[in-house]
Amino acid sequence: MWTLAEKAFVTLFRTPSDFNLRLFFSDLASSARAGRNPYDALHEIDTTDLVLEQAAKEMRQDIREGYPLSEAMQKYSFFKPYVIASVAAAERAGTFDASFKRIAQFIEQMRLVNKKLSAQLLSFAGMVLMLTFTLYVIINSLVPKIESMYVSRKATLTGTSKMVFGVLHFINDYWFVLVIGFVAFLAVARYMKDNQPEIYDEILLKTPIFNVVYINLLHYRFTASLSLFINSGLSVIEALEWSAKVVGNTVFGTIFSHASQFIREEGMGVAEALKLANTRGVLKPIVISRILNGERGGDLVPELDLCSERFVESIDSSTEKAAKTLNFLILGVVSCVIFFLAVAMMAPQMDLFNTIGRKRI
User: For the chain, how are helix, strand and coil distributed in percent, rounded to 5?
Assistant: First the structure.
């Protein structure tokens, strides 16, 4: 029996970690390989995750009542659509072992990719905090002292000094306007994502610095998910349709939906259909080339796996480049602030020296 604290934990935190989900499906794959059916496999699950433990019990009850495992999983938001689609395909083809194993591998790959991206985002957030702290110190500590020094000496501020001090005073007095603007920007972005996903996704594909990482991530999701679906027993048309749903971008999703339609209606090959559907040119030629090699060899999965591994490496390299670029820009902003502050400090002194020089003459 669970303690009150454990029940409260399950109620508040209904999402298991990707690590525990990977172990969950690895255990299912092991049981399926030993000949266990889904009901018995769920009974043999040994997990420390309370949410997954409860879910396994409830899914066993659903299976006992006649529901397939894929339908039982639909009650839980942490079982993503690609998981349910793969399990449904495995139910039709009887390939639970391979399907559970591939799901576990896919979750682990995505976990590692997301971990690397999160690390770079944290690094970027740290740089932003450093910039914010530097500006705070300059505006609230250094600038008032400099101004009071000039006022006490009755020095005349130049136009440059007045401009710099005016900007810094505006930030200090109306910082809440900047915060409101940032919050409004996030709200507009959220609204566009929910109500105008085509425009939102188009902007993401064209956002400087970040778009290279984002496009590599989309290519990885496509090749890895397509491999997962095909290996689970889905037809190529079904696999493309599901990839369109889980890739996470409407521009790419439209390409895969049109490609599946070309295959169904025109009888095209996968590579030919993708090439024809890629009217925007966002799908990289290497993907089409790899898929064509797989079609000629009679097996798409190995080529897709090689392609997804390549995009993992591309994500790593492009993320490092983006992080270096962002760090350089942030340091540039700090340097510019210090430079203009130095100009504001030195200009009145230079003006004073020039005045004294003219009086001597």
Answer: 85, 0, 15
